[in-house]
Specification:
Length: about 230
């Protein structure tokens, strides 16, 4: 067991039952000319988030912690989007933009496109778990819960974009499913102004889990690894 200097109070976890979750670190959310950039949202903080997540993954993989990639994406015919009868069709940004801007049709978060792919600096490695999702939460209509339980995972460290949308949605569902969720605060970024990121941080600390800076996670994992090898 490892005691983390988390907020709002220290948290004891078992790294042998832990995984790092990378939420939607795709070109759509983190790269110039990706969906968020085309929507006019500020993505200037994305390179910092990418670098922080890369450092987290280096430490996690060295210690043998599983890495889970969540990836938002739709079939080209949008048959898995819910259609006009679903609120997802009317609120999810990629679907709305492709509906309103014909030149973007078939280009945003469509499986197989550049927009859908994980950013190059965070390319998944063999053995990483990859889950494609069609809703904000990585648990909605996916095998994520079953895959985690099969691996004996109980503690989840969350990173990714956007803090206030897919990260928070997945973290909340993790809490409801009795996982122990920890948001790594400087390894995430909001879609929108920084206040939205801070709002999620407050929500997590007060109601849904714990928060932790990346340096604390990396230091804790490396200390365990140095003391006895892979977890």
């Amino acid at each position: 067991m490892v005691k983390l200097n988390a907020r709002p109070e220290p948290l004891e976890i078992d790294l042998r039952q832990s995984a790092v979750v990378v939420v939607d670190m795709q070109n759509a959310f983190a790269s110039p000319k990706g969906m968020l950039d085309l929507a006019g949202l500020d993505i200037s903080g994305a390179p910092r988030v990418v670098e922080t997540i890369r450092s987290i993954l280096d430490a996690a993989r060295s210690a043998g912690l599983p890495v889970v990639y969540l990836q938002a994406g739709y079939q080209a015919d949008l048959s898995d989007s819910g259609g006009p009868e679903s609120p997802n069709w009317h609120k999810e940004l990629a679907l709305r933009m492709m509906s309103c801007r014909p030149e973007l049709k078939g280009k945003l978060l469509i499986i197989g496109t550049w927009d859908f792919e994980i950013v190059e600096d965070l390319t998944p490695r063999p053995g990483d778990l990859r889950i494609v999702k069609t809703r904000y939460s990585g648990f909605a209509h996916t095998p994520l819960d079953a895959e985690l339980r099969q691996r004996g995972i109980r503690y989840l460290f969350f990173t990714g974009i956007a803090t206030n949308v897919c990260v928070e949605s997945t973290l909340r569902d993790a809490f409801f499913l009795d996982y122990w969720p920890v948001l790594i605060t400087d390894a995430a970024m909001a879609a929108g102004p920084p206040a939205l990121h801070e709002a999620t941080v407050q929500n997590v600390e007060n109601f849904f889990g714990w928060t932790l800076p990346a340096a604390e996670f990396i230091e804790s994992v490396r200390a365990v690894y140095a003391a006895g090898g892979a977890v």
